[in-house]
């Protein structure tokens, strides 16, 4: 009787496992409803543009709609917390970025989520560079001009950021340290408010993603001084890098990756990674991402987790060096 019971249990376990394998799992179990991709920034921002570039074709591959859910605020932390506390079933994913995943744990002592314990990598999407911009009517044409003026004034120089503890915030801190002047980061909750402040001249400058800044710069609403990329951006070929401008330590280049709640079944993560990599290799997707200012990546789950770990260590060092504390 015990032997029969063991055989029945083994057969049941095998049946359950079979529903989570390969195409059988994909067709019969996951996904059987829309998948939500949570983004920590407002519509029209670089993260949102990226999410919408990828979500449509990923949804086609999964044969289910991938819905972009904007949860803007707190430098991406609201979105990260939302996903970290969601069911680990593969239906709620995060468009993760350095601010909320790599910087926040070192900068905020009371972070309401733990990226290393509550989130797991699905796949890296791309690398992202930043460009330092000033208002179009600014007298500064180069980084050297900006630094010279900032050092000469008695007050601190106002530089807009898209939130405390974001890459742009640390760009401001690193520039001030490298240039030898005092900075006053002005943190805006909404990206649109920060852009308005830059365009109207309410602040001296800002670090914005190349994807966001390119259109504003080409439209004559902002002026670019330098990019954080190792080479000049194809979107802004006339703009020098910070290394060319004599300040190579001003490096806040970052990344975007899809993450899921820890505990999400491995077959679900494997399926998502497979379809995500296939999506990123599509020529039209790659062309649109490059056009928008992203350097495409298509990494394995393991490599994504390694990236998140190494970036956490890198940014922790930068946070410590600047002495920044978010709370």
Automatic annotation (TrEMBL):
Which InterPro entries does the record match to this protein? BUG, Bug_dom1
Signal sequence range: 1-26
Please tell me whether the keyword Protein biosynthesis is annotated for this protein.
Answer: no
What SUPFAM superfamilies does the record point to? Periplasmic binding protein-like II (SSF53850)
Keywords tagged on the record: Signal
Q: Does the keyword Nucleotidyltransferase apply?
A: no
Q: Which family does it belong to?
A: Belongs to the UPF0065 (bug) family.
| Protein name (database record) | Tripartite tricarboxylate transporter substrate binding protein
